[in-house]
């Protein structure tokens, strides 16, 4: 086995997704660094891999990194794995990869499953351009601010979300992006209860809120970007609409301006949603 640090992807649910190269590399390295050794032990036992195993995560002390480095310094090889999927994708390893590269060691990818790519591959939304946001902040206010920053992003948006926060997150997204924005819930990908459901934020919020089973397991949310063809309102209309919305509900303000200008009420309402909080 060539010396170097191997970043090895492992299955996100279905063991059949383990690549033969991943097995070969994990069986051949001198040391395996795992996010959670107990968790990874099950996967390694399945393939009868009993190479030396150590814990490595973002809060590991210097000794863990030194052990990896000294193995590489002696011309050995090390594999990094996380609990599931591709290491470094909302998982530990960034500092290790960077440090080993700056010390001149080879860092080699062994690609494979990752929930973000699996979800994109079945979402049925444009994937030519996407923005991966990982986990949103847990605090409602910070989360709303982050969503607001993404409101006018045209690229498809991908989020990881914890099951106990899924209803609150869909509600917050509906608030900020508008209830008509398309979203895909990709849950338990490659597992028994795999669910892929596309709808508007309003539809998906109702679906998830009314079914406790949809609030379980592992979840990726893929949200359509802001449509490029959305009407651009002239300065005067924007000002009028914003001023009216200070006095009236957004729906009423949109209806009045639509009456006076002949513009579509829905476009005006969407504009107001997009500037909400500005
Ligand atoms: N490194 C992993 C990867 O490449 O996908 C992601 C690790 S991150 C700590 C775990 C999150 O990924 C979960 O909370 C969930 O949002 C998503 N995830 C992982 N496996 C999944 C699956 N089978 N179905 C849906 N989402 C999954």
Overview of this protein structure:
With 278 residues, the protein is of the alpha/beta class. It has three domains: 4-113, 3-Layer(aba) Sandwich (Cobalt-precorrin-4 Transmethylase, domain 1), CATH 3.40.1010.10; 116-223, Tetrapyrrole methylase, C-terminal domain (Methyltransferase, Cobalt-precorrin-4 Transmethylase, Domain 2); 235-276. It is built from eleven helices and ten strands. The chain has helices spanning 20-28, 37-46, 62-73, 94-102, 115-122, 140-150, 166-177, 201-209, 235-247, 250-261, 265-275, and strands at 4-8, 31-34, 53-55, 77-81, 107-110, 130-135, 156-161, 182-187, 195-200, 219-223. The strands form two sheets. Strands 3-2-4-1-5 form a five-stranded parallel β-sheet, with helices on both faces. α6 (140-150) packs across α7, α7 runs antiparallel to α8 (201-209) and α10 (250-261) crosses α11 (265-275). The longest helix is centred in the C-terminal third of the chain and has 13 residues, at 235-247. The chain is elongated, with a radius of gyration of 24 Å. The relative contact order is 0.12. Residues 232-274 form the RsmI HTH domain. Belongs to the methyltransferase superfamily. RsmI family.
């Amino acid at each position: 086995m060539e010396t170097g640090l191997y970043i090895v992807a492992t299955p996100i649910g279905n063991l059949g997704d383990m690549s033969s190269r991943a097995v070969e590399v994990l069986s051949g390295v001198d040391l395996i660094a795992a996010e959670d050794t107990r968790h990874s032990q099950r996967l390694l036992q399945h393939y009868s891999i009993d190479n030396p195993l150590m814990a490595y995560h973002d809060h590991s002390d210097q000794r863990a990194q030194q052990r990896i480095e000294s193995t590489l310094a002696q011309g050995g090889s090390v594999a990094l794995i996380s609990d599931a999927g591709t290491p470094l994708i909302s998982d530990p390893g960034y500092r290790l990869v960077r440090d080993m590269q700056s010390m001149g060691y080879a860092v080699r990818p062994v690609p494979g499953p990752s929930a973000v790519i699996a979800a994109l591959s079945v979402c049925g939304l444009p994937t030519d351009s996407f923005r991966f946001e990982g986990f949103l902040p847990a605090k409602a206010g910070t989360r709303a601010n982050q969503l607001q920053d993404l409101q006018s992003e045209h690229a498809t948006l991908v989020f990881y979300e914890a099951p106990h926060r899924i209803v609150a997150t869909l509600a917050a997204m509906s608030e900020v992006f508008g209830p008509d924005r398309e979203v895909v819930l990709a849950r338990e990908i490659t597992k028994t209860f795999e669910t892929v459901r596309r709808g508007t934020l309003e539809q998906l919020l109702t679906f998830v809120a009314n079914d406790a089973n949809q609030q379980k397991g592992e979840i990726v949310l893929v949200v359509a970007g802001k449509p490029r063809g959305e009407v651009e309102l002239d300065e005067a209309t924007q000002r009028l609409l914003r001023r009216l919305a200070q006095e009236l509900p957004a729906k009423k303000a949109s209806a009045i301006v639509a009456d006076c200008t002949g513009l579509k009420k829905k476009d005006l309402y969407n504009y107001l949603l997009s500037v909400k909080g500005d």
